[in-house]
Amino acid sequence: MQLVPSITVLKGRTARLKRGDYKNEKVYDVSPLDVAMQFEEHGIKRVHLVDLDGARKGALVNSSTLEMISGYTDLKVNFAGGIHTDGDLTKALEYGAESVTAATIAVYNKDLFSSWIMSYGRERVALGADSLDGVIRVGGWQKETKIKLIDHISTFYRIGLKYLKTTDINRDGALEGPAIEMYKDIIKEFPDLCLFASGGVRNMDDIKRLQDAGLYGVIFGKSFYEGNITLSQIDSFVAGIEMV
């Protein structure tokens, strides 16, 4: 299972929100580049870089952070937040993203998002499908829809979607444990998807539970920034060492 740290950027700073609430922001005293370099030094190969300003605005904002991480590390960067147009997607790739995760555009312009999968390839375009009580939310999780999570995934699974990142918003940043049963249901319904779990991870035990449940990857953030997951534990996981 892939271990993918999340670096969430707000106004150029490393920050986390709780349950997607921009009024519930916590800034950490480490720059996005510095934390990315720490991850690379401890065996991480890929990070999930989230432009929170871009997600709320609907256009890339923190592209300079993407450029720095891509330029000063060899990390593969999956970029998310504010990718709504062909120009946004092209810009993210030009600034060094290996792949992108798009969410809002997949709700408002399904044809455009589908065309990205076909034009850029299944390896470079992932679907972000984040839900509250099983219903999709978009625009940095600030806007409600009436679209059920499973129905939304199915739309793109039929045309060859390979990578999915999904978050139970109730659990994001809350350190209350991941939505394991939700992920199991998705895997059962869409067995060929490479599913990345996101939200609620408290510690390495949760990561092991997700691995046992058959997840392709796990994205984690707050548990690291709050010290519940350490760099030495990341070392051990990447090396395949069983931790007591």
Description:
With 244 residues, the protein is an alpha/beta fold. The protein has a single domain (2-239), classed as TIM Barrel, CATH 3.20.20. Helix content is 38%, strand content 27%. It has 11 helices and 13 strands. An 8-stranded parallel barrel has the order 1-4-5-6-7-11-12-13, surrounded by 7 helices. It has a 3-stranded antiparallel beta sheet with strand order 8-9-10. Helix 4 (86-94) links the parallel strand 5 (76-80) and strand 6 (99-102). The radius of gyration is 16 Å and the shape is globular.
Strand content: 25-35%
Alpha-beta content class: alpha/beta
- As a whole number of angstroms, the C-alpha radius of gyration is 16 Å
Shape call: globular
SSE ordering: EEEHEHHEHEHHEEEEHEHEHEHH
Task: Report the strand count.
Answer: 13
What is the CATH architecture annotation? Answer: Alpha-Beta Barrel
Domains (count): 1
Question: What kind of sheet is the major sheet?
Answer: 8 strands, parallel, barrel
Under CATH, the topology is which? Answer: TIM Barrel
Question: What's the short version?
Answer:
This protein is α/β, with parallel strands linked by helices and 244 residues long.
Write the layout of secondary structure elements.
Layout (H helix, E strand, L loop, with lengths): L1 E9 L2 E6 L2 E7 L4 H10 L4 E6 H6 L5 H10 L3 E5 L5 H9 L4 E4 L1 H5 L1 H11 L4 E4 L2 E2 L2 E4 L4 E6 H9 L5 E5 L12 H10 L4 E5 L5 H9 L4 E4 L1 H4 L5 H9 L5
Parallel strand pairs: 1-4, 1-13, 4-5, 5-6, 6-7, 7-11, 11-12, 12-13
Antiparallel strand pairs: 1-2, 2-3, 8-9, 9-10
